């Protein structure tokens, strides 16, 4: 199989322990939170030097995921300013760890309208990127079509990226979110149409990462409910279509499926690999 599949791994015991876990599972790509995903705090990173020492050159990519509280599209000035500060801090932390990507949810306009929300995201990204010194990328994650969400359609993400005007902004495709937003990637025709939209509005060179998740809810549901690979509405047949596409196989894939222990990602990876034509 051409594709590189990893997962979101815990950092309990020090951030460098995530590399030990990736090695234990045989992953060549993985994702982490550099801090609590449910807070605004910025505690010092425990194990940063060990993380860089252990990493070596055997990983295709390692990325962090922004915490859940920031909202780059928020009309509330206090939340908006804290979101800029949070992304700026995540950039600093990711550069300290020499990561490849930061994944960020685009956010919610809270009823102010999609155009308002997109402009807020552009402002947030421009301000936060001012602190970035290297070539790492911030990847915007497509949303699931929830009420007031910004970034459920690739044309909206493309508009944001073009307005920011910085080559360090790109796309991470979440399969559950795309399916929930109405992109039928479980059928070849739908998958090819979605890839065409990504290329037209964003550009394939900015499409850098995939979150590989099945969907507990149906096509166009607008609900962000991840399921294990092959056990949701995308299903084994749908992932067979998705995973055998050459363009898809060229991107690292991160599992975020609901597991009770990170060791279960081995089974998820095996399931995905079984669906690929040899």
Describe this structure in words.
With 278 residues, the protein is of the alpha/beta class. The protein has a single domain (5-274), classed as TIM Barrel (Alpha-Beta Barrel). 39% of the residues lie in helices and 15% in strands. It is built from ten helices and ten strands. It has helices at residues 17-25, 48-55, 77-97, 114-129, 154-164, 175-180, 188-201, 235-243, 246-249, 265-274; strands at 5-8, 29-32, 61-65, 101-105, 137-141, 169-174, 207-212, 214-215, 226-227, 253-255. The protein has an eight-stranded parallel beta barrel. Helix 3 crosses helix 4 (114-129) and helix 4 crosses helix 5 (154-164). The protein is globular, with a radius of gyration of 18 Å. The protein starts with a strand and ends with a helix. The model has no long low-confidence stretch (mean pLDDT 97).
Shape: globular
Topology as a string of helices (H) and strands (E): EHEHEHEHEHEHHEEEHHEH
Pick out the low-confidence regions: none
Instruction: Label the structural class.
Output: alpha/beta
What does the largest sheet look like? 8 strands, parallel, barrel
Instruction: Find the count of extended strands (DSSP E, 2+ residues).
Output: 10
Helix content: 25-40%
Number of domains: 1
